[in-house]
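[audit] Reproducing an earlier prediction to check determinism. Same input, same settings, fresh worker. If the tokens differ from the archived copy the diff job will pick it up downstream; this log only records the rerun itself.
[audit] input (292 residues):
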Amino acid sequence: HPAVRWGPRSVTSEPPVIQKVVGVVKDAAAAPKRLTVGFLGGFKYPFRGARFVYLQHPGLVRYWIFPILITLGLLTVVFYQLGQHHAGWVEAIWSSPTDDGFWGGVKRVAHTVFDWVFTFLLGAAALLVVAALASIIAAPFNDLLSEEVERRVTGVEGPPFTLRALLRDTIRTVRVEVTKLILYAFVMLPLFVFQFLIPVVGALAYAVFGFVFTATYFAVDYVDWPATRRGYGVRRRAAIIRQRFLPMLGFGAGVYLFLMIPLVNLFFMPAAVAGGTLLFLDMEREGLVPPA
């Protein structure tokens, strides 16, 4: 009789079907961990960018301070004008009631509420306009900041400075930023209206899809600087999102967290630029982005 071997059986002794089932179970068990690691790994990059810009390389202030000052100037002008003229604009739409009695008092209360709501809506619209202008104004500075971050990380010098190259890159960068803003508005504005047409489903779709789309948009927006310098087109940018979706989503969520806070977003934008550049360089070094 053949000798009997005691002890645990080797996995390789199992039939192929059982091996396949075991593999599927192990992959399923490991999937949540991979998802968490991928998302959290990307989420850390905005904070790495903040440390790189503000703590490790404070001299980079010469690249990011100007768009912040310009944006603060725009906000000051806009809200000063709003404070000075909103009462006149309200009066042009609805004159203050002068009636006596109970209904006169009701009209005056309604007029006051209208003044508050109208001023709030004007302020919100002003913030959106300034935010859009700020991203366009900051685009050339962000491009220079990203290039300097890459130079300090890789040690590779960029192309020599010329006024012609600066003008060309500025026009290209502003054109790309305007295109991305139009694309974002084209997707999000109909979704914003949809949430009011179908209250429950629309609000849920706006909350979930809006967050995912906005976070992905931010990720692409701030990884775009090194990708553009390598001549990446739309197809390669889409490949980065498709192949590295979780880290990109995590990075975009970290950016989203801070860029939605008024005033804080101004000072966090340089950190997002540096974080996106660091993320791209790490993915490129590990061979996780498509070659240019």
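[audit] rerun output stored. Observation attached for the diff report: The CA atoms of residues 14 and 20 lie 10 Å apart.
[audit] end
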